[in-house]
């Protein structure tokens, strides 16, 4: 295929991906009561699943500190187009998340024919594992990072008497940034897998630069999350664990490569 033919092929893959995103986005736009009342605003309510589980845990350990019964804040829209704009952007984010496996599959279909036979063997199951890690990160961000961060920020006061009145634009940006950041950052093991198979990464390199990696993780967590220490720690902690898992994956690949050469 010529270069223009490749571009034409890529264009159709992208068109089909965008159509899939739009289908889910339109569905999310139509069912706004469920999407906004249950999903997007869920982590900001005291009866959210995470808070109920924490309350049950508090009952088991005889502690009232874990039971969150109130989130003192007021959510409002300060712009004329605020609610409508957030309705559109929130629906698009929902569509992107739901259509992610198909979107990645379309991109992978475009890339895969250009790989060598051994590269195709190495990348077998890529769509499944990338999607699995992505949704694991999304669920972690949704059920752990978002509600705990929102609880911290809604209860934080510099001095008593200052009320927390959050704009809907600020809330949606906060929510989507946290959740999508977790979904993307959970891809660390897959990136390590491909780079180790390509011979670019080795377990020795990963161990040597482990301290540097932790600093990078903390920096990335600070950039991708709102400016509060709770959100940063909640993202940095699992990323550090994923980095250690990546070392294990790289070591297994290196071991298999050595056996193959022998």
Automatic annotation (TrEMBL):
Subcellular locations according to the entry: Cell membrane; Membrane
InterPro entries: Sec-indep_translocase_CS, TatC
Transmembrane portions of the chain: 12-31, 84-105, 126-148, 168-188, 209-227, 233-251
Keyword Protein transport: yes
Keyword terms of this UniProt record: Cell membrane, Membrane, Protein transport, Translocation, Transmembrane, Transmembrane helix, Transport
Bilayer topology term: Multi-pass membrane protein
Function: Part of the twin-arginine translocation (Tat) system that transports large folded proteins containing a characteristic twin-arginine motif in their signal peptide across membranes.
Subunit annotation: Forms a complex with TatA.
Family designation: Belongs to the TatC family.
Protein's name according to its UniProt entry: Sec-independent protein translocase protein TatC
Organism: Splendidivirga corallicola
Lineage: Bacteria, Pseudomonadati, Bacteroidota, Cytophagia, Cytophagales
